[in-house]
Every structure is written in structure tokens, then in C-alpha cells.
Amino acid sequence: MDEILPYPFLAIVGQAELKTALVLALVNPRIGGVLLIGPYGVGKTTAVRGLVDIMPTIEREELDEQGQPVMRRVPMRIIELPLNARMEDVVGGINERVALEQQRVLLEDGVLARAHRNLLYIDEVNLLDARVIDAILDAAAQGRTFVRRGAMTRLYPSQFVLVGSMNPEEGRLRPQILDRFGLRVWVAPLADMQQRLEIYHRMRAFRDDPQAFLYKLLRPTEPVLNLVFVFYFQKK
């Protein structure tokens, strides 16, 4: 099956505030996350997924062929939170299959552990269970997550870039949650007809030949990627 390529971030037409906020959050996670607010079809999710083209690389511990830990440089990833995520899925919980089949308790990592040093994207954040969003915001603020399941406990790092999006027509966020996002951006549909026509042409070109479309963006993407890389590591 062919891999579905995300629409490139630098090919997005207009939406300067949206793009600026996402890049700022990417290079400086201490901003406190970004909340994108707007109706369907304005490019919120498309913009977030397109960030993969300009994300910096990070050092991550992995096991080599002999099972020894080694540090390798890998690209940052986008971790998307499912809308129906439970608290156990987010912070971690007991593997029920192992408990039933092997009669032992295994504490599994949740989404927050996988999001460490990556970007965590929450679409329709206003529809999430209140306890789940509170746990995510607490982890983002503290940089770690504590899990207790019976006699088992675990403390693991969870430092990540937090991006949420919502359609206000489907429900509001509590003011306490709104205040915990460092940046809030209203994303409105483009009114300029020339821009809308340009979107149509670019989307059609990307759909017809994604590789050729991406090739044309290699040159303008490189300086932005270098800039993100430099500023990201200056903040470390």
C-alpha cells in the first residue's frame, strides 16, 4: 500500500498567524502549546500534519543488534490522540491481555510516554473527557507523568510540543483549559478569491503527482528546516 504523504507545510496558502504559531511552538516548546480554533475545512489538521517536513531531529536511546542501548538521531514525530482515548490510553495502564493470558501484571506506557520529545496533536480537544485533557495539560506543564495502578507505580518523562484544535460550533472549552494554552489562533476561511483559486491549483497538483510537487518545495524548505533546527537546539 502506498504511503499517504501529508500536504507540505510550506505549500499552505495564507494563514500567516496559523503557520507562525506552529513554528514558534515547534522551536520553543516552553511557549506552552497552541490551540487552533476554527470551523471545518480551514486547514488546521493539514497544517499540523505538514509540520513533519520541517521538524528537527532528536537523540533517542535505542537498542542495537546486540541489545545494547545506543543513542541515535531520529526525526521528531507527530503523535495524534484518538478522539475516544481513555485515561488508561493516555497515561498508561495495565495490559489486560497479558493479565488474562499470562496471569501477570504488565504496566504499559500510554500516549504521553510516546509523545516524549515529539509533537502531540489533539484534534477536537473540546470533545475530550475533562479528566483526559487535564492529565495531558498537567503532563505538558510538569514535563513528566506519574502512573499508579494498584501496587505498581511509574514516573516517566513527557516533554512534548502540544497542539490542539477545535470547532467552536461543536462545544466550548472550559476557561481554565483555554488559559493553559500559551497561544490561541483563530483560523478563518480565506476570503480572497485569488488565494482560494491558488489553493485549488496546488491541491490538484499535489494530488496528481505528490513527488513532483514536493520536489519543487525542496529548495524553499531547506532554509526553514535549518532555522528550526538552530532555534530548537538553542532552547535546549
Give an overview in words.
- By secondary structure, the chain is an alpha/beta fold.
- The chain has 2 domains: 17-188, P-loop containing nucleotide triphosphate hydrolases (Rossmann fold, 3-Layer(aba) Sandwich); 190-229, no CATH class.
- 39% of the residues lie in helices and 22% in strands.
- It is built from 10 helices and 11 strands.
- It has helices at residues 16-27, 44-50, 87-91, 96-102, 111-114, 130-142, 175-178, 193-208, 210-216, 218-234, and strands at 34-37, 57-63, 69-75, 78-80, 93-94, 107-108, 119-122, 144-149, 152-157, 161-166, 183-186.
- Strands 4-7-10-1-11 form a 5-stranded parallel beta sheet. A two-stranded antiparallel ribbon has the order 2-3. It has a two-stranded antiparallel sheet with strand order 5-6.
- Strand 8 and strand 9 form a beta hairpin.
- Helix 8 (193-208) crosses helix 9.
- The longest helix is centred in the C-terminal third of the chain and has 17 residues, at 218-234.
- It is globular, with a radius of gyration of 19 Å.
What is the alpha-carbon Rg in Å? 19 Å
CATH class of the largest domain: Alpha Beta
CATH architecture of the largest domain: 3-Layer(aba) Sandwich
Structural class: alpha/beta
Itemize the secondary structure elements and their pairings.
Blueprint: H1 16-27, E1 34-37, H2 44-50, E2 57-63, E3 69-75, E4 78-80, H3 87-91, E5 93-94, H4 96-102, E6 107-108, H5 111-114, E7 119-122, H6 130-142, E8 144-149, E9 152-157, E10 161-166, H7 175-178, E11 183-186, H8 193-208, H9 210-216, H10 218-234
Parallel strand pairs: 1-10, 1-11, 4-7, 7-10
Antiparallel strand pairs: 2-3, 5-6, 8-9
Helix pairs in contact: 8-9
